[in-house]
Specification:
The chain has about 300 residues and is an alpha+beta fold. The chain has 14 helices and 4 strands. The protein has a 4-stranded antiparallel beta sheet, with no helix packed on it. A hairpin with a 4-residue loop joins strand 1 and strand 2. The longest helix has 17 residues, at about 170-185. The protein is rod-shaped. The termini are far apart.
């Protein structure tokens, strides 16, 4: 209690502070008249605070709390869009199909005419829906493969795979679709023969002209037989036989490396062709006694 002047009593009197819950008022101890508002509303009363209540934290930039609604003010919590934008990976550049065709052609030593044909095929089929689910490298390899066949300079699927890293399965699927699509437009793909690969394989192996001529004649006669082997396998096994009959012999491993035909396939093809050697090997190149010196099947 304290003394203050009471207007009703016209004298100094003791006052009593009461009603702290509403902010606090001072009343005259004699007449009960409210004398003065001793405790402003903005002043807290320490002795009436809840002892169990946690002290309030300061609001500021360093506190991590926004002053308006108490939400976190950090960029990651306050701005999810900005956080997602920061974590988003950059998009890869669009695939350059024509540039990839040029790269494959350069690696395989393909002439410009075949490269231009591959570009035309790629331009026609790249927007076809089934090819959108194939890898771009496989589509490029298939286009180059078909272009080589149309220009009568066929290459193997394995050669295409080695040029750009596409899998044999993906290239074969893309090739089959593109060939059917081109056939519907009236374009002929043409069939492949063992003789189409023979001269190139012989050149890589360093065979002589006489050996190449003997291999070509052998391949031509072997086409009359029912071997049930792919043209590439027939070319590989003929090269193996001709080199075994010559002074410069080539092993199965060397021929498999150049032709990209498995060693087991060459050996199995040799077993199929062995009974017909006297029919397919030209007599001017090897006699009967020479054939008997060949490895048994």
């Amino acid at each position: 209690m304290s003394d203050t002047f009471c207007q009703a009593c016209k004298c100094f009197t003791e006052v009593v502070v009461s009603d702290h819950a509403t902010g606090g008022t001072s009343s005259c101890s004699e007449c009960g008249t409210v004398v003065v508002d001793e405790v402003p509303e903005w002043v807290s009363v320490p002795d009436r605070e809840d002892p169990t209540r946690e002290p309030s934290k300061p609001v500021g930039p360093e506190s991590g709390v926004s002053g308006s609604n108490g939400a976190a003010a950090s960029d990651e919590e306050a701005s999810p869009a900005r956080r997602g934008k920061r974590r988003r990976r950059p998009r890869p550049p669009p695939f350059d199909g024509f540039g990839s065709i040029a790269a494959v052609s350069d690696r395989l030593g393909i002439v410009a005419a075949i490269k231009d044909r591959a570009n035309e095929i790629y331009k026609k089929v790249v927007d076809q829906k089934p090819l959108k689910f194939r890898t771009p490298d496989a589509v490029v390899a298939a286009c180059v493969y078909i272009a080589c066949r149309q220009e009568n300079k066929p290459r193997t699927v394995k050669e295409m795979c080695s040029a750009n890293g596409a899998t044999k399965k993906e290239v074969a699927r893309a090739k089959d679709f593109i060939m059917k699509y081109l056939e519907t437009e009236g374009q002929e793909i043409g069939t492949i023969h063992a003789a189409d690969f023979l001269r190139r394989f012989c050149s890589v192996l360093g065979m002589s002209n006489i050996e190449v001529m003997a291999a070509q004649e052998t391949v031509k006669k072997s086409e009359e037989l029912v071997l049930r082997r792919s043209p590439i396998s027939v070319a590989a096994v003929v090269i193996y036989i001709i080199t075994q009959l010559s002074n410069d012999k080539k092993g199965v491993k060397d021929i498999a490396f150049v032709t990209r035909v498995a060693e087991a396939t060459i050996k199995n093809s040799y077993k199929d062709l062995y009974p017909h050697l006297s029919e397919v090997i030209p007599t001017w190149f090897a006699k009967e006694e020479d054939l008997r010196q060949l490895p048994p099947a």
